[in-house]
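User: Hey, my collaborator sent me this sequence without any context and asked if I could get a structure. I don't really work with proteins. Can you help?
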Amino acid sequence: MADLYSQLGVRRDASEAEIKKAYRKLAKELHPDKNKDNPKATERFSKVTQAYDLLTDKDKRARYDRGDIDENGQPKAPFGFGGGGPGGGPGGFRGAHPGNGPGPFGGAAEEVDLSEIFGDLFGNGGGARRGGPFGGFGGFGGGGRAAPPEKGPDVLYRLPVPFEDAAALREQRVTLEGGKTVSIKLPKGVEEGTKIRLAGQGRAGPGGNGDAIVTISVQPHRFYTRDGDNIRLDLPVRIDEALLGAKVKVPTVEGAVMLTVPRGATSGKTFRLKGRGFTGKDGVRGDQLVTLMVDVPADDAELQRFVEGWSGKKGNPRASLGV
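Assistant: No problem. I've predicted the 3D structure and written it out in C-alpha cell form, which is a compact way to encode the shape of the chain:
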C-alpha cells in the first residue's frame, strides 16, 4: 500500500489544516456519488479517507511515523505474523450517510489488536486470548484453557452531520453495511472527530458480531462559526436600524428569534443569546454571540447628499487612539 502522505499528496511534515484541505479536494473529485461508473475512483476514495482518518488522529499519526503501525492502522506484525487489510483481510473505510441520502460506499476495515494475541501467552499458564495463533494451546506453564470464540471485525464509518444538527443534538440516520438503517443520538459535547460505537453492528464472527464505529464530521456552515460551545454570527443591519434602533430577526440553529437593536448601535457591538449554542460534555449549553455589522450602501445618492451636508462629519472618532 502506498504511503499515507503520498495518497493525500502532502509532505510528511504537513499540518493538520493542510491534510484536511488536501482531503476535501480529493473527496470532491473521488466521491462515489460522482463516480458511479468508476470503481477505481471509489476504491481510491476509500483509501484517501482511511489515510485522512489515521493522519488526523494525533496519536495514530505519531505511531505511524514511528513505524509502530501500518497504513491500515494495524500494529506492525511481529515475528512474521500477517495482519488485516489489503492482502490479509478486509481493508479500507466505509463512509456513512444520513438515512435519506445515498447508501454507504467503499470497503469495511477490521481492526486487529496483536497485543491481545500475545497478551496471555507467557502469563498465568493461560492460552492465547481470543483464539490466538496457537488455538487452544496452553501457555508454557501448562494446564491451558480454551480460548473464547473471537468476535467479528469492527466496521468504520464517517458520518457528515450538518452544523445545526450537531448544535441542537438532532438524531441522525445512518445506513450501515448491508443496507440496514439505524438511528444515532448525538452525545453531549459532540465535535469534529467524536466517535460513537454501535455494539453488535459490525461483521459476524464465531463469537458474535463486531461493532460499528462511527466518526462524526461536523460540516462547516455558511454564516455560523463555532467558538468552543458558543456560536458566533455577524448580523448585517441597515443604517437606520442602527441609528434609530429596531427589532430585527436573527437566525439560530433552532429557528429565528427577535433581537432589539438599541438606538445608536455601531458595528462590532455584540449581543448574547443565552442557550443557543452547542451542548458541552457537562450538559451546559453555550450561547450565540451576535455581532452587528452596519451595512453602508455604496451607491445611495440621497444618503451621499445628506452626509456631504452633515455637520457631524467634522468630528474625529479616532482621537482616543492618538491619531
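In plain terms: Residues 39-55 form the longest helix (17 residues). You can pass these C-alpha cells on to your collaborator as they are.
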